[in-house]
Write a structure and sequence with these properties.
elongated, about 90% helix, mainly alpha
């Protein structure tokens, strides 16, 4: 179903339950969806790089280095799957509900997202950091001091960048929920 058709359907319905018109809700939902796509893309690229490195170099024998890589890949993959599931579920509901029920669903959806954002995401980030921490002794032993420093600094900046994108999307979702509830 096209967005224009959805807009027409929503505009035909009475909208006395909120101070949002259908266009506002659709616009905000699109912005939030695009933000989710950006988060998914960044996390997916990180997983791809880790996978490539893992399959070329890491699995000669099992050790804490491999455990670290596995933890990093698993935490990011879990978060990506969670984002895709969340995104798919919301879009499926958009097509099947009337405006008033979808508005109520959005409130419930964003409250559930808060659990993901404030419980699951910090756990995923902590597991990722722990995995990276497990890699550092191996990097220190096998690489030059300068390259080790580069890996350390770029790893920290990458983590900060991914965390900043996730935090930005969490803030946007929280603002949207606040607007829905007001």
């Amino acid at each position: 179903m096209e967005n224009d058709q959805l807009t027409e359907l929503w505009e035909m319905q009475a909208n006395d339950s909120s101070n949002f018109n259908p266009k506002d809700i659709i616009t905000k939902a699109k912005k939030q969806r695009n933000s989710q796509y950006i988060s998914i893309t960044v996390m997916s690229l990180t997983v791809v790089v880790l996978f490539i490195y893992t399959f070329y170099y890491a699995f000669n024998h099992w050790n804490t280095f491999n455990l670290g890589l596995t933890l990093m890949i698993t935490s990011l993959t879990f978060r990506i799957i969670l984002e895709f599931y969340s995104l798919y579920r919301k879009e499926k509901q958009l097509i099947s509900m009337a405006q008033k029920s979808y508005f109520a669903y959005l409130k419930k959806y964003y409250k559930a997202r808060q659990i993901v954002n404030f419980a699951v995401t910090p756990i995923c980030i902590a597991v990722y950091i722990f995995g990276f921490y497990l890699l550092l002794p191996y990097f220190k032993d096998y690489f030059s001091k300068g390259f080790y420093t580069y890996i350390l600094i770029s790893g920290i900046f990458s983590l900060i960048g991914v965390s900043a994108i996730i935090i930005k999307s969490i803030i946007k979702e929280k603002r949207f929920l606040k607007q829905l509830l007001s």
